[in-house]
Amino acid sequence: MAQKIEIWFEFASTYSYLTVSRAAPLLEAAKVPFAWKPFLLGPIFRAKGWDTSPFNLEAAKGAYMWRDVARRAARFGLPFQRPPIFPMHTVQAARIMTAALGQPWSSDFARAVFAAEFARGEDISDAGVLARALETCTDDPAHWLQQAQQDETKAALRATTDQAAALGLFGAPSFRVGDELFWGDDRLEDAILWAQERR
Amino acid sequence: MAQKIEIWFEFASTYSYLTVSRAAPLLEAAKVPFAWKPFLLGPIFRAKGWDTSPFNLEAAKGAYMWRDVARRAARFGLPFQRPPIFPMHTVQAARIMTAALGQPWSSDFARAVFAAEFARGEDISDAGVLARALETCTDDPAHWLQQAQQDETKAALRATTDQAAALGLFGAPSFRVGDELFWGDDRLEDAILWAQERR
Predict the structure, then answer these.
(1) What pLDDT is stored for residue A199 in this prediction?
(2) Predicted structure pTM score
(3) Which residue of A73, A110, B108, B175 has the smallest Cβ count within 10 Å?
(4) What is the predicted pLDDT for the residue at A198?
(5) What is the C-alpha to C-alpha distance for residues A176 and A179, in angstroms, rounded to an integer?
(6) CB spacing of B60 vs A168 below 8 angstroms
(7) What is the CATH number of the domain that holds A154?
(8) Which residue in chain B has the smallest CA separation from A185?
(9) How far apart are CA B150 and CA B171, in angstroms?
């Protein structure tokens, strides 16, 4: 049995879109077990004094990122457009994902949210957009929208975000295999190899 | 004939060490012509208000970088150690490289400087270290140390650095293929493919 990979991601993150959209078949083929770790980058950025994404704070890096993500999405066969808002407010999406982590459809939900955001440019802070993503996964979207508002769910997302900071995470996606950290969609294959070689 | 790749690099940069050390056989096998573009990241960082590398300014990202570079160097079969000084002052090394760009041994010089810095931890701002790197390439190191101090050489390096900023470069290594920009040692293979597909 290969080691487990934790996939730490943030719904606002373009490179997390690539990872969440393409990871499942790679992990399955490699027989590597995994766990989703939805977290918020906002508190980690604010602790450095940043009030938005570094891609907005650094113009040249931001311009490059949009081109790089478009190029890589094309290579992976994923639809992509630059949404009108970036970064989006993702706390509601992350809370629903946190509440749904035990469900067999949680991967589908994450992919549906990212597709709304980066394939169709929809605002995923909108409750209607999130409800439609849930509708593709479950017969009872209202239940999960409600679960997302429970104190327990809010506390769990806060705890995951605190853990991210404590583990030294500074961007998304990040992959943890044991104590080994990999950062960026372009390290997904490296993380999978690492997990396989340490079974 | 494939398109030409410009390899923009900074002697202080850990990921530039990986690229300069491993690029030649890949480019040769792919029959992709290339040109070295030594430049200085310092002025680009200072324009953002940074007085050192972002890997020093952001502790978590810096800790990750050292681990990531060590892991990738091992995978490429390259010796690596974290040098006692980071980032080093690289203006003299970059001036010598600029003066030597027309020479058949310029690639060897770049590799020798990076090996001193990241394989052996030597200070490449030291004239003796640079002279020893030159000795592996030419019978007349003194001539090239002198060439590096010519006004023409200094102006050429300043012009390359200004051009880097104008092109939107924000880190090293960066690869340019026509108008297409790729950033990071982990995009070297993508840049080579891009150049091959657009012959």
Answers:
(1) 66
(2) 0.95
(3) B108
(4) 81
(5) 7
(6) yes
(7) 3.40.30.10
(8) B186
(9) 27
